[in-house]
Records
---
Amino acid sequence: MTIMVSYLFLQHYWWLIISLLAGLLVFLMFVQGGQSFIFSLSENESQKTMIINALGKKWGFTFTTLVTFGGAFFASFPLFYASSFGGAYWLWMTILFSFVIQAVAYEYRSKPSNVFGKKTFDVFLFINGALGPFLIGTVVATFFSGSEFSLNEMNQVSWANRWHGLEALTDARNVSLGLAVLFLTRMNGLLYLINRIDDEDLNSRSFKKLISNTVFFLAFFIFFLITLFMAEGYQVDNNSGSIVTEKFKYFNNLLEMPLVLIIFLLGILAVLYGAGISVFRHSTKGIWFTGPGTIMTVLALFLIAGFNNTAFYPSSFDPGSSLTIRNASSSFFTLNTMMYFSFIIPFVIAYIWFAWKGISGKKITGTVMKKSEHIY
Amino acid sequence: MIENVDLSLVDWSRAQFALTAIYHWFFVPLTLGLSFIIAIMETLYVKTGNEEWKRTTKFWMTLFGINFAIGVATGIILEFEFGTNWSNYSWFVGDIFGAPLAIEGILAFFLESTFVAVMFFGWNKVSKRFHLISTWLVAVGASLSALWILVANAWMQNPVGMVFNPETARNEMINFWAVLFNPVAVDKFMHTITSGFLLGSIFVIGVSSFYLLKKREEWLAKRSILIAGIFGFLSSLTVVLTGDLSARTLAEVQPVKFAAFEAHYEGKRNAGLVAFGLLKDSEEKIGEKNVKDFVMKIEIPGFLSIMTGGDKNSFVPGIKDLILGNSEDVQILSVEEKMERGRYARDLLNEYKEAKKDKDVIRADEIKNIFLEKDFINDYFRFFGYAFLRSPEDAIPNVSIAFYSFHLMVILGFFFIVICALSVFLVLKDKIQKNRWFLWLALFSIPLVYIASESGWVLAEMGRQPWIIQDLMPVSAAVSQISAGSVITTFILFAVLFTALLVAEISIMLKQIRLGPKHKEDIK
């Protein structure tokens, strides 16, 4: 079977896939959000065990999504992989560091003879929970605010400062998105725990914490959106191929792509609705709305970063070096070949769903934990 | 391209990648092997309904889980280090190299992570059959993920299925099947996963032997040894066969690596295979590098010629022929000549970039077409990486490391065949407990199998030096432009972290082994 598609279509198709994976990743970081409550939500060891075990069953999916996101980005937009990872070295290394310590923490924390004690591994989970989403949000913000790099004629990257990515933390827009993502994952984490754990005391505290986290999320996200929509963006001039700045670029992108605007608005509404029914009606089903809402909102943000002739990884140091989905992508052949592999994704989602349903079973309670064979 | 590179940056970047890869490979082969052994055990449980099999399966599954988590943790760093530490490489070949990594994520990682959750949390929640299928899918998923990363690695050893595009200054894939069925990939995949199966088997035999030495868990230990022994024996035969095939392929596509792991300097007919030997520096030099000589060696006459060419009279080029050239016995270009040709290709690329800058469309198009010509590709572009070498002897990898890692791997490989065969024999004859020497030997084989397994990768990666992509790009041209200080800092951080996690892993593993499987009354 051969499907006739254009190079431009494939570049857009793969940016869409990357954007979907990003949305999925931010949603699945509810695991990290939940981990950030490890020391503050529970009042006794039994409650802590319930929280960790509810999250522990899902950490692998977040991790796998992150790895797949990285792999797909490498394969479809290798110039981004080379420029951002090779340039913003410290930012990415810190993110990776926080994920490495997470992977072992679940499995090792309650095992006898784990050398460092349960507390150490719990601290690992907390660090990953707080740092991971914040830094990933900060990196994503640089898709709009820009980074200080340049490319030579052989497309080799040079970073223009000695901070190698850490300078992103000095930009209020970046930090605000980082914090917005952190509080969003914390909201999703709470909603997931409310949905999975049947413990009145724990749930009541979760509902209370949800209010403050929603308020913080909204504050930082609105600040980010206002600065984003007011900001100049990097536009590709189709005739010359050069990068020029355009006022209100990202706001214009939303208006010029009505479907993306609808996805964006629906996403935000779903997040607000999910949080609303949980806060005001103490519904346990909020996650079913905030989850898809998160995916849609992140998807829309990525689409306005990369579609509509926008530079998705702008260089504030040398605008001509900015990356677009055209100049940063793999060849037609590679994108086309991988497109066939991407058709398997719905099947992957289907079996994940099937397997999750199979093992989810009853809600987690203290009794269920005691009977459980594999406890973190 | 990078002309003035900080060598300490290159060395530290290599050290960091080697550190991560070595740690990662401590855990992956056990996952590969143990997952299949567990699946076989669970199949026996489902077939027979015997609860002892369930108990046995669960015990090995606990050890699998401890090992799996840390394998995942170290794996994520490896993937991202291609970007963080080898950014020039990431662009130069990302069009080809990235695809297997993405496919690995989509096809294998999700399969593995989804069903590993069912494997651990699904007992009593899903049907026996569903659980069994999940366990098998974890095993298949683990091998499938190995397939794609090995396809990517094989491409670094033998770049095929691509063409260089001067406009983008990178290699671009033109034949996916050539990349997937690269002869190096096929051999490497089979050799690597079966070596993982063997490692898993030796691990199970060793741990079970510990129980028999302690006169504990006899039922579990004997049956585990039997399953692992058979599985390991069959795997070890495949390891030998695929190892032989790998060596033949290497002789063709990476002749310097091949000559290095045999410390074969003088090309000749009727060349012998060194089964064992000790090396020393001789007075003779190639450029600045000392030629290695043997203090002693045990050689199988003519075998190297038979292995590579099918008969005793076939000529096996030595390191000297490959570096200095040989026009008498066979036509082998000298590295000096390859450097010339590589520089020609690089200069042409620079000229193309100049023409583009000057808007000289005609010259730019001419050069672009030259890069597509078969003769140019075969005679010049395939030596592109040689343009970056400072002297011909730079093309010689560390011969001592290649030689000892290869021979250690092979000698231990044959030792494990004996261990697996003997373990099956002794269990079937019901004499295994009487032969305590064998139980001790099997127990101490566990560290040896890890040494053999790591040696294989040391050979594969160190033997390829100075190349990151054989003949096309040396490591010095591939490195990210960051400060050596940054890499030294992250190297130290990861070294401390990985070591701490390894210590925790071994401690937990030993404790679980000492505790043993849960007793019957604990089984739900």
Note: Chain B touches chain A through 88 residues (CB under 8 Å).
---
Amino acid sequence: MCVTCGCSEADQVAVIDPDTGDQKIMSHTEAHAHGHSHTHDEDNSNKHEQHEHPQNHSHHSYAVSDSGSAAVMARSHSRTIELEKEILGKNQLIAERNRGWLKAKGILALNLVSSPGSGKTTLLEQTILALKSEFEIGVIEGDQETIHDAERIRATGCKAVQINTGTGCHLEADMLERGIKSLDPASKSLLFIENVGNLVCPALFDLGERAKVAILSVTEGEDKPLKYPHMFRASELMILNKIDLLPYVKFNVERCIAYAHEVNPKIEVLQVSATTGEGMSAWYEWLRKAESTVRT
Amino acid sequence: MHELGITRSVVAICAENSGGAAVKRVTLEIGKLSAILPDAVRFCFDICAKGTVVEGASLEILEIAGQARCKSCGGTVTLAELVGRCPCGSNDLQIVAGEELKVKEMEV
């Protein structure tokens, strides 16, 4: 079993190039074979080059094979090992490495999160068509199954790779790392990461993005920010999509925005219709501004 | 169901650090404002532990209450859930406790 993502042998994540059909299966060992000394055998001796050391411990005080980060106290028949380890620590480590790499290349990476059906892919298609003369754009698509979304993005003429998470309900940092390797985004480009449609789990997993952008459509409930506070709290921007449908649905925009600010007073809100183009220029402005600050 | 992946990580962290010894007890810290349900972790624990050195271990979960510092008045606020307000009326709160997700210790 793998500590990085908790995956078992049975879990397989696929990184797919929709142009060539080239598919790379990330077995759990391969998925993490990227520079840190994470292995899956029973020998712990080389595994902890990158671990963090709690203060005031020495490496040779205790007769435990992996005493690197563990303070051990002898008891009569059993002993307690103080671990103080973040459960998501390894994901965080890889996310920070991704962030450093992206920043060094001057790439603005945004993690787009929403429920299924909020219009993320349509929003991306329109964004690419509008901005492709201005920026190089790459897309990493996360879905449980199919390469439909990556194919839609490819049809706009932009680079895209698909990550199929199988039964996984969110992208994790190591999957993004593999996706980036496969996509090979250009320096100073925009990188959109379309997470698996899910308003719960992706909030927990930092990928190394510059910001999360939550997309909510007016065909959903206006109280979604209150129902899924973790996601709206973790996001810098909420895009309220499908506003062309407002005359036909019961959706109170002011109340929705108030709920979003209740959860996250700092969240910015944009109202758009990716289909009609209404409000999209404000989103493009937001992107230009975010892009201009990537290298600072 | 991200609790399944979380619980697998817990078991794997314990197994990596036990030096091959059977684990008798695992203690976690889970903040009440984290998006993790302790009951779901308990439900998954025995299944994930099966066939590892953690099999048969008892699971202790310390739930950490939510606490925030109000950025407007500087006061401390206890939070039962992620969304809340300071008595001063502000909701500009910086969470200082309750988001923990940690393997605190284990007994081998």
Note: Residues 2-17 of chain B form the longest helix (16 residues).
